[in-house]
Amino acid sequence: MIDAASDRKLEGQSAVRFIVLCTAVYFTSYVTRINYGAVITEIIRVESISRGQAGLISTVAFLTYGFGQLVSGYIGDKVSPKLLVAAGLVSTSVCNVLLPFSRSPAQMAVVWGLNGVFQAFFWPPLVKLMATMLDMNTYKKACVSVSAGSSLGTIAVYLVAPAVITVAGWRPIFS
User: Fold this and answer.
1) 12-174 in CATH: which number?
2) Are 118 and 85 in contact, with CB atoms under 8 Å apart?
3) pLDDT tens digits, residue range 41-90?
4) What does pTM read for this prediction?
């Protein structure tokens, strides 16, 4: 990749590959953010937790995501956006792997709350990377493409989750 201080912009196939990578990252961020909501009814049923407890887990993630946006913005001014995106990918993956091992709603709230914070490490750094590495016309197209990654992620989760639940339960959705 090109250094953020460089005036050179990606062009042609390099720009296309970069946009595809950013779209894949944002797709992954959506899959690892909305998967809980897609299986919440099954978690309530299987784990015998109340709707209120399950909803609280979701609310904690929502609130920490908002807080994480502030953290991400502050950190984003001090460290490489590539590092933030990588940290977000690794950290949200860890949270997704840990959630099925949580044995209480409180543990789930902590894990999913942390996931909310780490989810905030995607969009602001991706926008910064795209703005730095692409010319304005390509940047606008990239924003549309990357945003489409969220829609594709949502569709994928809601298509796959019912089949996985039927075959193997809710836990594999997070692995």
Assistant:
1) 1.20.1250.20
2) no
3) 999 999 999 999 999 999 999 999 999 999 888 898 899 999 999 999 99
4) 0.90
